[in-house]
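so ive been stuck on this for like two days lol. basically i have the seq below and the ligand is NAP, smiles is in there too. i just want the complex predicted, nothing fancy, no docking runs or whatever. if the output looks off dont worry ill sanity check it later, just need somthing to start from for the group meeting slides
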Amino acid sequence: MNVAIVGASGAVGQEFMRVLEEQKFPIDNLKLFGSERSAGRVYHCCGRDCTVQLLRHNNEDFSDIDVAFVSAGGSTSIEFADVITSGGALMIDNSSAFRMEKDVPLVVPEVNGDDAFNAPRRIIANPNCTTIQMVVALKAINDITPIKRVHVATYQAASGAGAAAMDELVEQYRQIGAGEEPTINKFSYQLAYNVIPHIDVFTDNGYTKEEMKMYNETKKIMHAPKLDVSATCVRVPVMRAHSEAIWVETEEPVSVEAARKAFASAEGIVLVDNPANKEYPMPLDIAGKDPVYVGRIRKDLTNENGLSFWVVGDQIKKGAALNAVQIAQYLLKKGGLK
Ligand SMILES: NC(=O)c1ccc[n+]([C@@H]2O[C@H](COP(=O)([O-])OP(=O)(O)OC[C@H]3O[C@@H](n4cnc5c(N)ncnc54)[C@H](OP(=O)(O)O)[C@@H]3O)[C@@H](O)[C@H]2O)c1
């Protein structure tokens, strides 16, 4: 395959390089793209040195590309979608720009992989990171009995806001330790020693855009227009991997044993649920890992049909780069790519 990474210097772009190597993705040629900031930089990936090219309005740059992994923000995706796809390249986009468009599939391979075959605009959207790890877990329960509604509180790592946000968190701890005033650019407030109940902008209904992404994207991925999700998204001073406290109400009651069995056998999930030994997933252990981890499974005390559990996933991996590469792998395996 001839592969392009757009936004190669970013947190997700860098992860794309690691994931393509780890997954031994079949690459003939690799092209990297960025803005003036990173153009000319050289990265080593998949056994070769690649120089970042400036992303331009030149269709020729993508005429030989089979699949382009794009993670350069929504406005760049919108501006360059035609340039990227005009020669037939499949664009797998990590931004929120196209996720809710009817003619763009929104895909998590473990949940709705076949939707990837219906991409008339040659664009497939990668869902929001918090949604990806949640729907992988929801699918396991939904296969037992349909889920009626979901409440979720997220604990989202600094890296969800990009490479500069990681640097800012490290720098804030250093500055505070040195008695200096912390620099605040990427977040609304100081994140070090704090949690911030605000991710993305507020919408008219009082929820943030991040929270409404979980509401809208879950319905689309799970083909469940009546499945409502009420989310509270919170930034926490964790470097990498998002955690989620999830409460589901199902049509029929699900026992803890049945839920454990379903999670243990589900694709893409690792069950870590042994409270007696203090075993449960935590972001520090899960950072850099591929699967979604589930633990703390228990019956909801207020509702016979309610179940609570805790889900942790590396949002740059499964929540972004890995899921996108898995979409390409899914299509490749089933003859839907090249
Ligand atoms: N971080 C996460 O956990 C995560 C998870 C899921 C989805 N996403 C999404 O993935 C995208 C990238 O996120 P990130 O965290 O990787 O951000 P980031 O670390 O800030 O990186 C942004 C990347 O976009 C490139 N870029 C920006 N403007 C560009 C332009 N006009 N032309 C070409 N390249 C341009 C940058 O290249 P230069 O350095 O050359 O400017 C850089 O490589 C965003 O849409 C984000 O919402 C992120």
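The chain has nine helices and 13 strands. The first helix runs from residue 11 to 22.
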